[in-house]
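Thread: "does anyone have the structure for this chain?"

Original post by V.I.:
We have the sequence but no experimental structure in hand. Need at least a predicted one for the grant figures.
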Amino acid sequence: MNDNVLKELSQVIADRRENPEEGSYTCYLFSQGIDKILKKVGEETAETIIAAKNGNNDELKMEISDLLYHLLVMMNERGLPLEAVFEELEARSHKIGNLKNMKKVDRNT
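Reply from O.Q.:
Generated one for you, tokens below.
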């Protein structure tokens, strides 16, 4: 497995935005704008939830992959670099006792 696959995909997405290619789905998304991109993020989120509920890990793997791709497109559209998300995750990984921030959250969900 290539641990850099998200970085590489993010770079391909950025390149498609800067250098559009005929017939590219990524270029199509960028040409349609943020509303279309967000619609796809929403659709893929719902499909990921359904796949998880259905218990089919092959389907779940495919839906998560679609969701990650569309999230990367959204991040590029909004100017949020993948590295910023990695930095946030890294910072969170060092926190201990973060449950106190979830007092009002229903722990059953």
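V.I.: this helps a lot. The mean pLDDT is 91.
O.Q.: and The chain has five helices and no strands.
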